[in-house]
Every structure is written in C-alpha cells, then in structure tokens.
Amino acid sequence: MAEKFTIATYRLEWNTQTSSGHIRLRGAEGEYARIDVGSCAELDALGTILRNEKPVSYNTDTCVLVAGYEPVGEEEN
After folding, report:
1. Are the C-beta atoms of residues 53 and 69 closer than 8 Å to each other?
2. Which of 16, 22, 23, 56 gets the most CB atoms within 10 Å of its CB?
3. How many CB atoms within 10 Å of residue 45?
4. Which 8-state DSSP code applies to residue 76?
C-alpha cells in the first residue's frame, strides 16, 4: 500500500562542501520523508513547487511529489 501524505512543512538543506542536499518533509499527521537532490537547480525547482503550489503531497513508495490540480490558464500571483 502506497503511503501518500499531504505536506504541512518542509525544510531545504544544501551542503556546500559535498554539493549535495535534501528536502525534509513533514505531513499534516506527523509523517516524515526525505528527498535527496543532486544539484542546486533540482533543490530550487522542488523548493519552488513546495513554496508556490497547494496542496502538495508526497508518495513514499513511488517517491513522487504531486501538486494539486489547477484550472487551465490560471496565472500565478
């Protein structure tokens, strides 16, 4: 059974010595997950999704980050 949860909070981390990073996710019901990233660009792209979209969920079995459906043509504010 896939574990999917809605993300309540997140933390971006980048190690400047090893050029690696990860994102720590915490779900609304206390679930935790970690996404390892291999570049600053990847960290920035995922951070942008977490910062600007809602709702956002994460599936720990498939390692897929999912932003909610939006109407076609909707502009970001």
Report:
1. no
2. 23
3. 12
4. P
Q: Report long-range pairs for 9-14 (Cβ below 8 Å, ≥24 apart).
A: 10/50, 12/43, 12/47, 14/40, 14/43
Half-sphere exposure of 16 (CA within 13 A, CB side): 0
pLDDT digits (tens, 9 = 90+) for 22-51: 999 999 899 999 999 999 999 999 999 999
Query: 6-24 pLDDT, tens per residue?
Result: 999 999 999 999 999 999 9
Helix ranges restricted to H, 1-77:
40-52
Alpha helix ranges (H) inside 32-76: 40-52
Question: How far apart (Å, rounded) are the C-alpha atoms in residues 32 and 67?
Answer: 18
Average pLDDT over residues 59-73: 88
CB atoms within 10 A of CB 58: 22
